Amino acid sequence: MQRVEDSAFAETGRRRTLPRKKPAVIGLVLLGLLAVGLTGIKLYNLHRYHLETESRMMMDTVVSIHALGPEKITVPAMDRAFGRMAEVDARFNIHNPDSPIYAFNRFGTPITDPEILEVVRFALDISRRSGGAFDITVSPLIDLWGFYEDTPRVPAASDIAERLDRIGYEHLILRKDRLEKIHPDIRIDLGAVAKGYAIAQAVSVLKAHGVSSALVDAGGDVYALGKKGSRYWHVGIKGPRETQVLGYLEAEDTAVVGSGDYERFFTENGVRYHHIFDPRTGYPADGLSGITLIAPDPMAADAWATALFVLGPQEGMKLADTLADIQVVMVTTSGDTLLSAGLRGDTLQTIPTTE
Ligand code: AMP
Ligand code: MG
Known about the structure:
By secondary structure, the chain is α+β, with helices and mostly antiparallel strands. The protein has 9 helices and 14 strands.
């Protein structure tokens, strides 16, 4: 702006010595005005590059999308991203009678939906790699413990033992184009991975619609797309107990996903029972109260958060240190904070660890 005014003044000065070149001077002044006008338009556009935020209830939580960019790009992109997440939510919701998972669980109808098959294939891979700690067939246990209703309770040990016979991912047969089960009682629940998948889908939709800077937050499980303008997105890492924030992460193209005993639980005789089950025992997994996974893929982060939570501090951290692209913050039931190898350097100094 300032430069345009300066050059117009310079031309005016020259006019005194060369009075005959009036049309040229007028032309230059007009050009100058045009430049001012254009600069004005540019500034106007800059004002329209703001952070757009919207929240909707889905997947049993509040999902917020924050996107940076011109409104005419971000607003429709966010709407479509939410739409995509709602589709995933409906398709993977085991209580939805229209979901292929519902029909599979209830009537044994093989699943042929390619999207569900893709997530099941991914989940089975995590099951194998976690030695069975992650297992989408734990559904009958969740049901027995009452976590699908509002009144969870500790079941009789004999009932737990009986249900364990029907649990194990080896009871599933995944063919190229269908998922079948070997016994009618086998039921699946993709709740430990579907939210990560939904976040990944939302991010793809945002990108496909021209958004390169956004934060998708599904009840504290987030993906940071690009940077927040020239700065990183700041993502807080929660402790398992409400008052604790362990530290902040500077995120760019990264998922930060948590699992813990604080999400859904009840207490009986002073003991906390939560919704993440050890498929080997039939009881809630022991050893950790919270875990946060930092990884490029939200679906992998979600699945590994649950898998490593079940494995516990020793076994879980040992496995975490072998996984490429995945970093972990664990909080044990005794309150100790543990970091995986990649975070033990100076990357996350804000998180005090327990030696
Ligand atoms: P998340 O909050 O991602 O850890 O997922 C928890 C949900 O995953 C629970 O509500 C159950 O539906 C399901 N789940 C519980 N235990 C397991 C397990 N060992 N493997 C896979 N899914 C599980
Ligand atoms: Mg999970």
